[in-house]
Fold this sequence. Notes:
The chain contains three helices and nine strands, in the order E-H-E-H-E-E-E-H-E-E-E-E. It is α/β, with parallel strands linked by helices. A six-stranded mixed β-sheet has the order 4-3-2-5-6-7. A three-stranded antiparallel β-sheet has the order 1-9-8. The model has no long low-confidence stretch (mean pLDDT 94). Bound molecules: inosinic acid and magnesium ion.
Amino acid sequence: MIREHHVRKVLVGERRIAARVRKLAAEISRDHPEDPIVIIGILRGSFVFLADLVRALRRRGRRAVIDFMTLRSYGAGTRSSGRVRLAKGFSADVRGRRVLLVDDILDTGRTAEFARRYLLRRGAAGVRICALLDKPARRTRRIAADYVGFTVPDVFVVGYGLDYAGFHRDLSSIAEVTFTDSIRD
Ligand code: IMP
Ligand code: MG
């Protein structure tokens, strides 16, 4: 069910996002001497962030090979169903290579934990996590991102790839969702 909601409060605007992405690219470039950098994005939430990040890396003269895996843990609500499943794997050969995992948000941590384990099982030499957003208040897993764009409070956010029931991924900034009936499910 999709609830009546508003997207009015911008938490992070476009210019701040762009500046942060440039900084993250500088840090990642410094920490990853390998060429190319192997990047796996988690779909669908990471696609906007990842597109900007790899171009920021390229502007620094760094090449990346990019693949995606689709993971699902959410229905249409704002709470994780608690189980993560692999909807579609990637085809890149990660054996013996260090991988940069890119996700939209680290919430409970289940998705990132699942993805990291999956990559290690596929033979990756190491996995570093880059999350656009970190919502530490809701973490249930002992997992931290190596690179974080912004830390956000315990509110539901959309935009810049993040969705509510499939909507608002196309918003250029990161905004808070407020529910008209003000009941959280
Ligand atoms: P986790 O497995 O609980 O860490 O949740 C990770 C996934 O839940 C993210 O990749 C998002 O797709 C989704 N998610 C968690 N919090 C939010 C939010 O505030 N807005 C939109 N999606 C979210
Ligand atoms: Mg999502």
